């Protein structure tokens, strides 16, 4: 085994060059570690500190996850990010540890979970390892041979069924008869061998280290379930969670040794595929256990063998560290509940990255992420903005050798391009929205050349003046049928060029901007000639029913002129083909065509079936579940939350007019609503608006944050500027 590691190090040095300077620590594990799938390692280090500094930042990395205790106190619950800042590198966490230290002896303990396999959100390095470095004047705590490390053999694999191939996580079995009681606390007397150095920093297979770009998880602590009921047979506890959430289950039982307790959620087969579950094998007596691999659902299920007495059950919710500071309410309870479920769905699809769903895949599909990042600006605190920024860097860092970009990325077992999702990602609703709504342009220079390569080498505008359609690896425009790929391709490509042009001008690349303008003009000039039939947009040769998505994208891209709007509204009142993913753009098109009343009506037409499941707090992948669903039919897909964005952005009318909401407009489109209000949390503070419509007038109460200005309509042709402060005024219904 040692020869194998030496070979890996040699290959790493050749592939990655010299080890990174600036690191005194080394990657460590133990001689007995085989880096197998689902390996757990326990690390300990005792250090003497004469005087605790005011601040001490530890830099910690692991493949794949870790839990940190200092002097017996839990400091980090699930640290580490799934691997993949690029195909070769690893994230590390900066963790402030000074508050947990004391003068004299200090015990540092780290539990590492090595996934040991790749998935749609993680690339396996092949090495179960820990890196720890905390250095200050007179203090040097670095991972080296002085640490102790043991394979924690109580953590084991379950028998089949195992999680589906998309998930890098395994099921977790914990055999309490092999528990190393107290190993993570001071005074532990058990024997643990010294660690082995297995790699310097900066070489393959763990690669360079990239600082974690998002916050550590918010830990809500152990809490009792909302309700607990026992099955009629008495062998299962059904423990209701307050809402669909990311949780780790806890139990306290009295039992003889060797009893197997099975733990799973009601989403164990969510999305038609097996997800993660857990097993706990009892030791004799009273015992407590928390399963550290998170699950999600509305209900936790403990399946109990005979002879096990349950003393307590709880759950710990953890999740992305953002606050629910955005809000929306109106006089229609349906819209209020839809907004509420949209926010819950958004939050449960945020963790290491934006996810399509938290059960079947946990994968950063960028079609989903485009919708999700737009929702976050209206629902969550600004710390949420960092997650999309992380995703942007990952998407472009994983660009293939042929210039193609693909998602999900990171991914150790997927490299296929869905062309229209990629155009959406780099375009107006993806990269540009992230820049414009956050005000953060820091990523633009770093990704521009790769974005440019994708749009101009992989994609081409042909002799027809329109984009040359591409199938890519998976020609996917949406779930469902009647998908007009020709119209959609040109609309998404045009929006991608629009975003690229804005970035080119921002970076002073005037030649690029001029060339992009020529390409956009070519599409504008030729679009109607090829696709407009006189009553709708259709590709020549397209045989399906008229595609509502295609009409919507023609509107939101700006390629459809206003004189087409009456005909397009008629189409959107007849055709209902879009999945919840693309329905967002259909609804936005209706608001753009000044049809807010029908937009609200269509929301109800489309979402009523989904909302008629009162037991669910999240939105679905399709319009229903089972046969009425799409894809895997998950019940927690944030791409369905488009109305969240539109209720705040269009109904309440709050949109930025300069980056980061430094200036913004308030142009409500209330439709049939009489009362509506919204809160939007920005880097400058909270924008708060309250609307009351009476006849042709709207009474507005508006809070404008310090450092910003608002623009409001005083007539159909004139806007008025309002500076920071509290304002009350009347505007006409536009």
- The overall pLDDT average reads 96
Tally of helical runs: 14
Ends: how far apart?
73 Å
Q: Helix coverage percent of residues?
A: 25-40%
Give me the Rg, rounded.
27 Å
Query: Ranges with pLDDT <50 over ≥5 residues?
Result: 1-17
Gross morphology:
globular
**What amount of the residues lies in strands?**
25-35%
Derived from helix and strand composition plus strand pairing, the structural class reads: alpha+beta
Beta-strand segment tally: 31
Biggest pleated-sheet summary:
10 strands, mixed
Domain Alpha-L-rhamnosidase C-terminal: 653-721
Keywords: Hydrolase
Organism: Parabacteroides hominis
Domain Alpha-L-rhamnosidase six-hairpin glycosidase: 324-651
Characterization of this structure:
The protein has 14 helices and 31 strands. By secondary structure, it is an alpha+beta fold. The strands form 6 sheets. Strands 11, 12, 15, 16, 17, 18, 19, 20, 21 and 22 form a 10-stranded mixed beta sheet that branches. A 5-stranded antiparallel beta sheet has the order 5-4-7-2-10, with no helix packed on it. A hairpin with a 2-residue loop joins strand 4 and strand 5. The N and C termini lie far apart (73 Å). The relative contact order is 0.09. The N terminus is likely disordered. Keywords: Hydrolase.
């Amino acid at each position: 085994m040692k020869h194998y590691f030496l070979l890996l190090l040699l290959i790493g040095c050749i592939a990655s060059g010299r080890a990174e300077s600036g690191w005194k620590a080394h990657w460590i594990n133990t001689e007995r570690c085989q880096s197998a799938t689902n390996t757990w390692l326990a690390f300990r280090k005792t250090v003497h500190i004469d005087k605790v500094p005011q601040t001490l930042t530890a830099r910690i990395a692991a493949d794949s996850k870790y839990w940190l205790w200092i002097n017996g106190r839990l400091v980090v619950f699930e640290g580490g990010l799934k691997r993949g800042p690029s195909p070769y590198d690893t994230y590390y966490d900066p963790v402030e540890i000074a508050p947990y230290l004391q003068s004299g002896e200090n015990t540092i303990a780290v539990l590492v979970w090595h996934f040991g396999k790749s998935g749609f959100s993680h690339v396996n390095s092949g090495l179960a390892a820990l890196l720890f470095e905390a250095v200050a004047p007179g203090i040097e705590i670095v991972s080296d041979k002085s640490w102790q490390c043991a394979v924690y053999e109580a953590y084991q694999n379950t028998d089949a069924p195992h999680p589906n191939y998309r998930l890098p996580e395994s099921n977790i079995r914990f055999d309490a008869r092999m528990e190393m009681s107290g190993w993570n606390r001071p005074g532990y007397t058990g024997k643990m061998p010294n660690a082995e150095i297995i790699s310097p920093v900066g070489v393959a297979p763990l690669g360079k280290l990239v600082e974690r770009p998002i916050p550590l998880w918010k830990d809500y602590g152990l809490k009792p379930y909302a309700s607990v009921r026992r099955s009629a047979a008495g062998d299962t506890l059904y423990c209701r969670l307050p809402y669909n959430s990311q949780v780790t289950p806890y139990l306290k039982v009295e039992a003889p040794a060797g009893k197997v307790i099975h733990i799973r959620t009601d989403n164990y087969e969510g999305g038609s595929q097996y997800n993660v579950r857990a097993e706990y094998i009892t030791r004799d007596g009273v015992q407590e256990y928390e399963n550290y691999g998170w699950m999600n659902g509305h209900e936790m299920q403990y399946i109990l063998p005979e002879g096990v007495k349950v003393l307590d059950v709880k759950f710990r919710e953890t999740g992305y560290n953002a606050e629910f500071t955005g809000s929306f309410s109106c006089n229609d309870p349906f819209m209020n509940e839809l907004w509420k479920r949209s926010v819950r769905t958004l939050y449960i699809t945020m963790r290491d990255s934006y996810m399509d769903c938290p059960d079947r895949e946990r994968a950063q599909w960028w079609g989903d992420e485009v919708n999700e990042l737009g929702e976050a600006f209206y629902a969550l605190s600004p710390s949420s903005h960092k997650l999309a920024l992380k995703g942007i860097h990952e998407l472009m860092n994983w660009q293939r050798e042929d210039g193609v970009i693909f998602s999900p990325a990171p991914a150790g077992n997927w490299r296929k391009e869905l062309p229209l999702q990629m155009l959406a990602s780099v375009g107006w609703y993806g990269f540009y929205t992230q820049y414009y709504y956050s005000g953060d342009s820091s990523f633009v220079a770093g990704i521009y050349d790769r974005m440019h390569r994708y749009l101009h080498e992989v994609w081409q505008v042909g002799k027809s003046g329109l984009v040359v359609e591409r199938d890519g690896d998976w020609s996917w425009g949406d779930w469902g049928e009647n998908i007009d790929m020709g119209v959609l391709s040109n609309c998404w490509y045009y929006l991608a060029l629009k975003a690229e042009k804005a970035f080119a001008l921002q970076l002073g690349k005037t030649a690029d901007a001029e060339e992009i303008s020529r390409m956009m003009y070519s599409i504008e000039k030729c679009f109607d000639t090829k696709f407009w039939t006189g009553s709708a947009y259709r590709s020549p040769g397209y045989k399906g029913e008229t595609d509502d998505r295609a009409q919507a994208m023609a509107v939101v891209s700006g390629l459809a002129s206003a004189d087409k709007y009456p005909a397009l509204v008629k189409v959107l009142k007849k055709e209902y083909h879009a999945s919840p993913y693309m329905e967002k753009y259909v609804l936005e098109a209706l608001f753009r065509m000044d049809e807010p009343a029908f937009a609200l009506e269509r929301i109800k037409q489309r979402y009523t079936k989904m909302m008629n499941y009162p037991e669910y707090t999240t939105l679905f992948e399709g319009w229903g579940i089972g046969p009425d669903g799409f894809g895997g039919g998950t019940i927690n897909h944030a791409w369905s939350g488009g109305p969240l964005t539109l209720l705040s952005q269009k109904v309440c009318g709050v949109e930025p007019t300069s980056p980061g909401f430094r200036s913004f407009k308030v142009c409500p489109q209330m439709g049939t609503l009489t009362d509506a209000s919204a809160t939007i949390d920005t880097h400058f503070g909270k924008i708060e608006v309250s609307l009351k419509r009476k006849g042709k007038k709207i009474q507005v109460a508006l809070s404008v944050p310090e450092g910003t200005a608002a623009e409001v309509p005083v007539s159909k042709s004139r806007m008025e500027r309002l500076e920071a402060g509290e304002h009350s005024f009347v505007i006409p219904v536009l």
